[in-house]
Fold this protein.
Amino acid sequence: GENVEQHPSTLSVQEGDSAVIKCTYSDSASNYFPWYKQELGKRPQLIIDIRSNVGEKKDQRIAVTLNKTAKHFSLHITETQPEDSAVYFCAARGNDMRFGAGTRLTVKP
Amino acid sequence: NAGVMQNPRHLVRRRGQEARLRCSPMKGHSHVYWYRQLPEEGLKFMVYLQKENIIDESGMPKERFSAEFPKEGPSILRIQQVVRGDSAAYFCASSPTQRGASYEQYFGPGTRLTVT
């Protein structure tokens, strides 16, 4: 089955700086890679996703890159704001969906 | 279009009792997934169901846990003889039919189970 590793587990940045979270996956058949944001006590919310036929996708301050050869994908948040503070989960889907362990992002004002 | 619904939102059970968690997927979604989240931890896959079928239950403990998604009504995750270690948030997610190659999963608000 799929195995997803996510790094770092915690990340602290100053407001306005960029944040990068990286994930690797094991199943070469995986073809869909979503990212979720979870605020304290809330449900995970899909913020961006990418499919295996695309190398990069951007939505305003959020971008995701995918390297199929190396089996890794990354989330990039630019111009971070305090409201970006949350836990971010990556996931990879082949036959089933598997999530990374999460990254707690703190944006200091 | 209402989102994924879960109830109850909070459930308290004493050790040895049964817990029943319900999930109604988004309208038009025929795939349901259950995840468990312990405090300060990630989402752990439990089971994937379609209507009247369990597709993948590889993440579900072999004993005391069961799940169903009947033809009519919500999906139910059932935990028998609960123990303290079952205390967690249980999230349900749904996605559209895969014939459209739509893999997006949308999460419900979760049920927070506390076993006393």
